[in-house]
Amino acid sequence: MHERTESDSRKLLRRLRDVLGTKAKGQERLDQITHLIADSMGTEVCSIYLFRDAETLELCATEGLKKEAVHQTRMKLGEGLVGRVARLGQPVNTADAPSEKGFRYMPETGEELYSSFLGVPIQRVGEKLGVLVCQSKEARAYSEDEIYALDVVAMVLAEMTELGAFQGDGPAMGVLHKQPVLFRGNSGQEGAAEGRVWLHEPRVVVTNPVADDPLTEIDRIREAVGVLRVSVDDLLAAESLDKDQKAVLEAYRMFAHSRGWLRRMEEDIQAGLSAEAAVEKEQSATRNRLEQVPDAYLRERLNDLDDLSNRLLRILTGQGKDTGATMPENPVLVARNIGPAELLEYGRKLKGVILQEGSVGSHAAIVARALSIPMVINAERITTEALNGDAILVDGDQGIAHLRPEETVARSFRDKIAMQAAAQKRYASLRDLPAISRDGVTISLHMNAGLMADLPSLEGSGAEGVGLFRTELQFLIRNKMPQRGELAVLYTRVLGAAKGRPVAFRTLDIGSDKVLPYMKPQDEPNPAMGWRAIRVGLDKPGVLRMQLQALLRAHNGRDMMVMFPFIAEFSEFQEARSHLLREIHRERSLGHPVPKTVQIGAMLETPSLAYAPDAFFKLVDFVSIGGNDLKQFFFAADRENERVRKRYDTLNASFLGFMALIVARCAPYDTKLSFCGEDAGRPIEALALAAMGLRTLSMRPASIGPVKALLRRVDLAAARAVIDRAIASGADTVRPALMEFLATQGE
Ligand code: PEP
Ligand code: MG
User: Is 693 close to ligand 1, i.e. is its CB under 6 Å away?
Assistant: First the structure.
C-alpha cells in the first residue's frame, strides 16, 4: 500500500462521483466502486456490505474475494469483524485478522488468504447502512491517514446509498425507507391512530457529497459557521432567557466557536468532501459517541452539538424548516423531542405523536394527555427512518408504532380502532345517564383538565364538572411568568366554557417533575419529596397570592372551588386558607369583584394528612385524593420510575383499606371527598374506589364512558363484600376476586 496524498483522496472521490453520474445499475456501480477503491488504496480486497434488514449484513460487492460469495455471505450485527464495525459504528483495524477475537471464517469468500483488515462503517447521521472493508495479504496495520481516507469514502458511499444509487435486486439493495419497521417504545398517552408521518424537523437532503474545489468549500463552511456563531450570539443576547436556556446556549456557543470542530470539517473538505458532507461526517461521529456515553450530562452536550450541526446544514443548504411540503390530512407528528408549547401549537389536528426520546412525566406527555392524542415515546431511531408522508400506525396503549405497515397489520389495527370507536359510541349513548350502580348508589363523575383545549370535552364526555383543573400547565407552556390579568382572563374563559358546572381549581403545583422554565431550578436530591407544590406557595407566597387574586376576579359573583396541592399537615392548610381569606378581604376592600361563595379544599397526597386532627376534616370544605402522588408515597414507589411504578396494585388490600379510612375520617363532618388520580379513570379501579365509599371521581374525559358503563352494571354492596372477603383472606391484591365477581355481573 502506498503513501496516500490528499489529491489521491480527492481523485478517488471524484471517480466515485463519476460512477454515480453514469446510467449504470446499482450492482454495476457497486462493482465499479469496489474496484476503484481497491485500486486507489493499493489493497487486494475491497468489499461492501449492506444491511438487508436491521440485524443482518450482506456482502453486496467485492474486489478480491470470490464473486460467488456476493449476496450469499451474511452476518448478524456484532458477528465477526464486519459485524463488529457495524455495531460499534467505528473502524476496526488489525494486521492479523484471523487471530483477532470474534473473527469469523467464511470459506465461501476465500478470505483466509488475507491477513490485514480495515473496516469502516457506512453510516449517515445515526443511520447504519453498511460496512466498507479493505483487506490485504501483507500483515500490516493501516495508518491513521488510511483509516481517515476510507472513512471519507464511506461517508460518500453513505450519501450515495441514501440517494438511491445502489438500488438493485434483493432486500440488501432495496430502496431505503420503504420497508415496514416496527418501533417498540413506551406509552406516553393511550389510544390508537392511523395516519401519515409529519416530521417536526424535516431531514436535510445533501445531493452533492463530493466537491472539486476545496477552497470554495472551505469558504462556504467558514461563512456558514460565521452565520451560525452570530445567530447563537444573538440568541444569547436575548433578554428573556432563564438559566437553563442560557446554559444550553452557552454550550452551543462553545461548540460553535470550537476550533476543533471547524478544523475537522475543513480536513474532511480537503479530503474531497463537500461542506455539507463534512458537517454530516462529523455529525455521524457525534451521534456515535452519543450512543456510547452513559453519562446523562455528556449526552445532553452531544445532543447540543447534534442540534448545532442541523442548524449548520440548514444554513449551508438553504433548506429551512419549511420545506414546502404540505401537512398530510391525518398527521402523526414524529420528532426527537418536543416542548409543550410547540406541541400545543399543532394542537388537536395531530392524530398521534411519536417521540424518539421523551418521558412519561414530560410536559409534552402532559399536553398529549390533555389533548387526548395517542403518544409513543422512546421510539429509537424513528427520526432517521421515517419520511414525511409515510403511512404509520400509533398504538399508544402498548407504546408501539408500525411505520409503513404491511396491509395485514394495518387491517387488524383498523379493526382495533373500529372496536374502540364502537365502544365510544356505546359510551356516548350513556352520556346523559347517571353513573348509578345496580343497587342505587350514584357516583359523580368529573373530568380533569389543565388547558383551554380540554374544555370542549366537558360537553361530550358527560362529566358533571371539572374535578381537577391543573393550573400549572398554563405556567409550564410559557417562557415567562404569566401576569395576574392574563390569568384572570384565562380562568374566566374556563368558567365560561364550563357553563355553570363546578370547576375545582388547584393552585400552582410546581416542583418535582414540573419545573417552570423561568424559575430557578432547585438542585434537590429527591424532588418528588422536596420543595414543591404548597411548600413553595407558603414559603414564597407572591405567586400564590397573585394566582388567588386572578381566581377571585375570574369568579366574579360565581361559586368558586379552590384546592391546595400536597397538604401534608393541618397547619399548612390553615396557612394556605388564611392567604385566600386575606386576598378575599383585600379584593373586597379594593372594590374588586369577588365570588358569591368559596369552597376551600385540600389535596390529600401524603398519607400523613389522612391522620390529621379531626379539626382539619371539620374545617376543610372538601378533600380530593391525589392518587398518583398518594400511591407513590404509600408504597414508596416513584411514579416516574418505569422499574417500580407499576409494581404495586392499586387494588392492594392495604391501599383499599387506606381509602376506607379516609372515607371514614370525612364522614362525621360530611366533608366532601373525591379521588382525582389516574386510577379514577380505570374502570376496575374506579369500581373498587366506589366500593370503598368514594362518591366522586375525577378522570380524563375519555375515561368517563368506560367507567360509567361498568359502574352501571354492578351491585356496589356486593362488590364491597367481595373486596372485604378477599382482604380478610390475606390476599395482597383483591384484583382476581373482583375480576371473578365481575364475570358474574352480566352486561
Ligand atoms: C395526583 O397526584 O394524583 C394528582 C392528581 O396530581 P398530579 O398528577 O398533577 O400530581
Ligand atoms: Mg399530585
Answer: no
